Fold this sequence. Notes:
By secondary structure, the protein is mainly α. The chain contains nine helices and no strands. It has two domains: about 1-160, no CATH class; about 160-195, no CATH class. The relative contact order is 0.13.
Amino acid sequence: MLFFAAALALTMALVSAINDRPEQWSGPPDEYLHRSAARYYIDHWLPPKVGDAATLDSYSRDYGFSYLNETDAVYFFAGKFARLISPLVSNHDIGFRLFNVVLLAVLAYLCAMRPRAYLVFLPLLLSPQIWYIFSYFNGDAFPLFLAMLIAYQVATAVFSPLSSRSADSARRRQFFLPRASSPRRAYIWAGSRLEPRN
């Protein structure tokens, strides 16, 4: 079901970007501010100074406010993502939207990989407004993604079988043992780290 929501978010992200007048981008009213903030990080690695000439298009017309002056990391990651996929998607604005769609797709993948944790993802399906934020670029989808990721990790730890949890704790106890042992034992220990886990 979550894959269906991700497919709908992708469709909405692409269809709403199709314009007969390219100079007018269709989308939510403040999306242009989010896109301008992410666009700065396509070519930059460090946060800008307030009023930097490279950030002037990220300031709102009404209030003189820029999302770059906040501490949100989403603009950095979205900018680098858009740059990474630019050989495939030359339009950075669509690249920013695809960043959010990929976040929802990752959640859908995690839900499919661990069906017992599906209750964690249920809030995403309660209302279209919740997963709709993944269909356009904004500063809300990334924090929601991180919150769902943390909830997923907690649910996985709580609801994992007791036998696998005791095996994990035994592995953790053995972490420092090879250092006090022979090199051969250290190689065996390192090889055991590469074993796939269920």
